[in-house]
What we know:
Layout: H1 2-14, H2 38-48, E1 88-97, E2 102-111, E3 114-122, E4 128-136, E5 139-147
Antiparallel strand pairs: 1-2, 2-3, 3-4, 4-5
Amino acid sequence: MKVILVLSIIGLISAEPPVSYLPPSNQYGAPSGSFGSPSFASHTAAILRPNAQYGAPNQQYGAPDGGHNGGGYGGHRGYDDGPSEPANYNFEYHVYEPSYGNDFGHQEARQGDVAQGRYFVLLPDGRKQIVDYIADSNGYKPKISYEGTANGGGYAGAGGYQGGGGGSAGYHY
């Protein structure tokens, strides 16, 4: 009984005084005008009405011809900066992390208007899909091949990772 009395007294002593809030201020009031007011409508009409000062576009120049002076990207915003160097580059990356079932990469080389490359990815059924390609003025020409044999699902054999579960048995062909 004494413990309850002591706790009650401590609770009363440590209680915060009640907070009182003032009523909201009327200093600012409601906004003047509304979306249906004549002043808003006249401003909107002025914004949406075309300005007769400029007239229709001139057809004298036409569309860009797309020429790039032997490859690369000569020019800026339709203006020709003169002859430019043909595009020449090589790049390659490879990600191999068998504990997560990752094995993918890409390699490409470009000389002028011809790009040749290869990219590959490890499929969920355990095979590696490989795409060898050439891209030139005649378009993109891929040759798709596969390494390994399908194992029926998951990434078995790649670090023991078995895929995402859910009853899925990987890709079927």
